[in-house]
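User: My collaborator sent over this chain with a note saying "see what the structure looks like." That's all I know about it. Can you take a look?
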Amino acid sequence: MKRIVLLILTLLLLTIFVLSGCGSFTTPMPPLDGTEPVPPISLPTPDGDTIALNGYPGKVVFVNFWGTYCPPCVAELPDLQAVYETLQDEDFVIIGINAEEKPEKVKAFVAENGITFPIVISDDATVNAIFGLKHMPTTWFVDKNGILRGKMEGQMSKRMALKIARKLLEE
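Assistant: Without extra context I'll predict from the sequence alone. Here is the result:
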C-alpha cells in the first residue's frame, strides 16, 4: 500500500512540475547566422498586385507563412500586427505569405482582423518547398542586406518578434 501511495505522489509531483514549467517556458532566440540571400520570388497579393520578396533592400523583413485554417497562425497574427505598427517608422516590414487559400477568403480575413502589413498568396505552395516549410506558422528573418538570417517555427510572441527585429535593425 505504501508503494502505491508513494507512486501516486511521485506521479502527481512530476505532473505538477511539468505543467508548471509550461506556463513559464520561454522560447530561446533562434540563431541568426544564415548567409543565403532571400530567393527572388514574386507573389500576388489578394488584390492582384505583385510583391517581390527580395524587393526591400535596406529593410529588415519578416516573411511569415500562415493560413486561416491554422489556429497558431491566427493566434500569432495580432502580435505580428502590433510589432508591425510599433516598427512601421523604421526600416522594417512584415510580409505574410498565405499558403494555398483563395484570394477572396484571405482578403476578407485580413480586413476582418485589421491586418495592415503586406499579404501575398502562394496558391500552389511551390514557395513552401523553396523555404523548406515544415510547420506553420514559420517566420523567416531577412536582414537589411537581403540575407535569410534565420527562422522560427511555431507561434512567435510579440516580445520575441520585437527582440529579433531590433537586433537585426541595430546591425
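A starting point for your reply to your collaborator: Residues 85 and 100 are 26 Å apart (CA to CA).
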